[in-house]
Amino acid sequence: MSVKSFKFVSPGVFINEIDNSFIPKSADVIGPVVVGRATRGLAMQPVTVESYSDFVEMFGDTVPGFGGGDIYRDGNYQSPMYGTYAAKAFLDANVAPLTYIRLLGQETTTGNGDAATTPAAAAGWRTTQAPNNVPSSNGGAYGLWLFTSGGNTDKILGTGSLAAIWYIDDGAITLSGTVYGGSIRTHEDNSVNAYSTGANNVLIGTDSESLFTVVASGTFGPELKIRFGFDDTSPNFIRKKWNTNPQLVSGATFYTPESAVGGWLGETFEQELRDRGFTSGSLGCIMAISNETTTGPWKMHPQASYEARTGWFISQDLETPAAYVPFRKQKLFRLVGRGHGEWLHKNCKVSITNIKASTTTVTDYGTFSILIRSLSDTDNNVQVIERFDNLNLDPTSPNYVARVIGDKYTSWDETARQLKTYGEYDNNSKFVYVQMNNDVDAGATDANFLPFGYFGPPRFRSVFDLNSTGACSITPGGAAGLGGDGGNMTRFFVTGGAGIPNSGSLQATGLSNVDCMYLSGGAGVGGTKSSAVCTGSLVFPSVRLRTSGSDGSLSNVTDAYFGMQTTRTTTSTTSDASIADYHRLLYSGYTGGGGENATNRYATTGVEDYAYVFSLDDIVLKSGTSDGWHYVSGSRVREASYTSASYTKLLDSGLDKFTAPFWGGFDGFNIKKPDPLYNGGMATTSTEDNDHTYHTWKRAMDTVADPEFLNMNLLATPGLTTAALTTHAVRVCEERADALALIDLPDVYIPAHEAYKSSKANRLGSTPQNTANSLRDRIIDSSYGATFYPWVQTRDDATGAMLWIPPSVAMMGVLASSEAASDIWFAPAGFNRGGLSDGAAGIPVTGVTQRLTSKERDTLYEANINPIASFPSSGIVVFGQKTLQERQSALDRINVRRLVIYLKKQISILSTQILFEQNVQATWNRFKALIEPFLANVKVGYGITDYRLILDESTTTPDLIDQNVLYAKIMIKPARAIEYIAIDFVIMSTGASFDD
Question: Does the CA dihedral 462-464-467-468 come out positive or negative?
């Protein structure tokens, strides 16, 4: 060896320093994937979080179930969301990031058919009314409409406003009280008698306390009278008096049979009722909304999850004011949710602010800011969730709105079975992406354009001039609509009401010349038109727009955000709880919205693409008033607006902001189920083609089936016990060959959201022996899966509630804490690392659903089910670590399987450093220099007892070199865990010597 390789220290002595102690560069830390529900967050796509605080920010906190309250409005929190606990358990140890896939309901490939023939295939929910005009029950959606008090001789009712919607599975709701305009008629008054009697559609006023009385009968139980009003500060408030839990319509399935009811209260619209003075002295009538048509609000089914969005933001008017048509203004962009479903429109709104025209000669493009705000904030107390400043509409600018916020979105490709990403710019918003108008994106629009307003959300089309033609019945599919308006409501309103199904003859005949006390038909009442004909209009509600800059007593009028106003009243500084009800998805399959066709506002029969169009071009300055600035629709076309002279004049005055809603989000879930993805909703014959619940779970797992798409070393689907799906989870990991699936077994414990049980003892659906036998029959035989028994009890930190959780949740914490305390290749079991009572699970574990005997533990372990034991003195402990491999080998233990997964993944990543290098000895030496120190460190850490790496001409032969292959052999001896201790106690005589 050349002397130059050595450092000269003293005459005749040469020292060469060889450092074999360096720590090789490790690959990125790899963590688990957890699949489950959550209260919010991006859905059906993997999202990686580094800590539990990050998880809460994105997905919300743990949910113990039994949430109660106003379920239809506030959300379904009736069942535990086990995935959130698994995330908390794992992230508590802080050993690796965690990837979460939040589930929302997805549609099968056959789910767009009729849900009556393939109910499991369709996502979403519906009442039990049969579609296609074949009434088999009285189900549907029914609205209470309020009118100002009549009393004049002309019976002019004015404009009726929808106050509330009931969703009925089967039963009847009718108004009770004094009839306006005459006596109640029954079916004996008409030859058509294929319906029951009732007082639906009869105009009845509020009583002396401004309350209505509705009679519920049929499957609601014995005739029930409920008095209510619309003052939400009163104990008689409608949402306090009526059932708002859709799950009670299936009470015999999930709750005590006595709790079952025929329907629930859906949307109520308090803000509009206050604004229109309908809180007292009003007339009311109940009318059916789409109880027979194939499309309508009663049938959000079949419907996969749908993203909330804003209407299109539109430009200012740069033309002659007299020719101003707001819905023909240039569409610029809109914001679309990135996967949040209903959460976005229920919790957020958008404000455009700091709108500025260009002040330089360099560019004509102006700037603006976008704020994602809390829906419940007010302009007096703005709560910003996200903000993006100094944005513009210049496609070449680094501040282009799509570039700054991002325009990428994901879509599942059913053919390729993978999640695909579309768009140009990475997402910087956690909530939305930008959808640009094509002309704006191409730079083909006026550079002076700025966002100046927006298209409002869609709503059902208003109906004017009731009875004006004497033909106020609505015949489904017919040409005659209310007021002779071309049948535009035929898809949404039908004759009859709750408890009054329509026969074929009734539909064919229609009901004309009805008496004044009936609207659009009523209880099958015909006869001669009386002299007292009622006239009026029906208008679906929309959220109030701010009309005055001083609303809410703002100290500075220019702080006012015109556009959508979410306060209880115009002068209030408190938000209104009903706002989100205005912005729900209208019906299954809705694809319009935002004036897509500028020359035809009503692209869908019976639907307005937008309830209104707002623009700052309609702001006026009223001289002589205390507040000055007002929004007056139509003021620009009358040349009365402040922008009539110049739009920059308005912006310079500080009126440079407005607020718009998100609308149309849908989770794709059946709201009549406590857990819409529960195991009991799937059958043994369920597949991804015939069952949307099965399809939803499987699609989430298939999203991470490609190891090149996402790194992971664990896959957990907490609470999922359907055998075919948990087996699929194991197969996904097996095919990837780099992850372990933690699965839960069926019938070990049956939680309340799976089925109603008369006693807690009945919730144990199986025995250890039966569970062992069932698992053997499945013949999974894979070292890439593991399972545990039984369920354990935990305490929710946020609420203190106690709940039972599947063992996979606790094991997520055990695996993480074991890795944190020692290393990934140590057995996640025993009193040192598997002591659940001592905090090994990351979350408190206080009990087990079943205390196992020694014999039962042996029965489970022999079937490759790891028992969770409870000892009187030692507490609860994980007492096994087998994989699901049936053949005996080193890989039938979890610690060895996780060791090999770790080695394969890390060595694979390290090996990429020599890819496409020359296949020569020098490269081989580089490979050895990368791998051998890594293996040595694992040996030092007791992961392996010995190893050998062979890479020479015997492995990488000339013919392999010709094929561009480097072939190495790595042999390891994994360290085994002690699972049994054998000790001989030898009793010796007194005189015996221990040395003998």
Answer: negative
> Does residue 825 share a domain with residue 945?
no
716 and 630 in one domain? no
DSSP-derived pairing of the beta strands 32-36 and 98-102:
parallel
At 315, the amino acid letter reads: S
Q: Which pLDDT band, with edges at 50, 70 and 90, does 190 fall under?
A: very low
- Residue whose tokens read 């509409």: 393
Task: Give the per-residue SS3 of 704-734.
Answer: CCCCCCCCCCEEECCCCCCHHHHHHHHHHHH
Q: What is the CA radius of gyration of the chain?
A: 34
| Distance, CA of 963 to chain centre | 50
The DSSP symbol for 194 reads S
Read off the pLDDT of each residue in 863-881 and give the average, rounded to a whole number: 94
Tell me the C-alpha distance between 642 and 967, whole Å: 77
**Measured between alpha carbons, how far is 699 from 103 in angstroms, rounded to an integer?**
10
Strand bridging mode 802-805 / 263-268 = unpaired
What whole-number distance in Å separates Cα of residue 537 and Cα of residue 404? 46
What angle, 0 to 180 degrees and rounded to 10, lies between the N-to-C axes of helices 894-911 and 921-940? 150
In a domain, 343, yes or no: yes
Grouping H, G, I as helix, E, B as strand and the rest as coil, residue 5 is helix
pLDDT of 574 over the 90 cut: yes
Q: Residue 280: what pLDDT?
A: 72
Is beta strand 367-374 parallel, antiparallel or unpaired with respect to 348-356?
A: antiparallel
Judge whether 8 lies within some domain: no
pLDDT surpassing 70 at residue 569: yes
Which two structure tokens, joined as six digits, stand for 663? 């609308």
Average pLDDT over residues 490-511: 30
Q: How many domains does the chain have?
A: 4
Q: Are 683 and 694 in contact (CB under 8 A)?
A: no
In terms of domains, do 535 and 548 share one?
A: no
Q: How far apart are CA 339 and CA 324, in angstroms?
A: 36
Does 480 share its domain with 450? Answer: no
**Spatial CA neighbour of 598 closest among 432, 439, 367:** 439
Q: Please check whether residues 857 and 988 belong to one and the same domain.
A: no
CA distance 971 to 884: 24
Model pLDDT, residue 670: 92
Which of 504, 539, 574 terminates a domain? The answer is 539
Domain that residue 860 falls in: 32-103+677-896
Q: How far apart are alpha carbons 232 and 871 in whole angstroms?
A: 53
Q: How far is CA 499 from CA 126, 185, 199, 563, 801, in A?
A: 17, 15, 10, 41, 41
Count other Cβ atoms within 10 Å, centred on residue 189: 13
Last residue of a domain, one of 860, 881, 896: 896
The band of 156, judged by pLDDT with boundaries at 50, 70 and 90, is: low
CA distance 220 to 173: 9
Considering the domain architecture, whether residues 273 and 203 belong to the same structural domain is answered as yes
Report the SS3 class of residue 846: strand
pLDDT single digits (tens) 325-341: 888 899 999 999 999 99
Indicate whether 833 and 705 sit together in one domain: yes
What is the Cα 298 distance to its own chain's centre?
20
Nearest Cα residue to 369 out of 390, 385, 349, 350: 390
The average confidence (pLDDT) of the chain is 82
pLDDT at 259: 75
Mean pLDDT of 526-543: 60
Q: What integer is the mean pLDDT of 287-292?
A: 62
Q: What is the pLDDT of residues 653-706, one digit of tens each?
A: 999 999 999 999 999 999 999 999 999 999 999 999 999 999 999 999 999 999
- CA-nearest of 507, 526, 502, 521 to 188 is 526
CA atoms of 380 and 370, how far apart (whole Å): 18
**854 within domain boundaries:** yes
CB 873 within 8 A of CB 838: no
From residue 872, alpha-carbon distances to 839, 856, 877, 956 in Å are 17, 17, 11, 59
Q: Check whether residue 577 and residue 430 sit in a common domain.
A: yes
Element (H, E) at 250: none
Q: Is residue 65 part of a domain?
A: yes
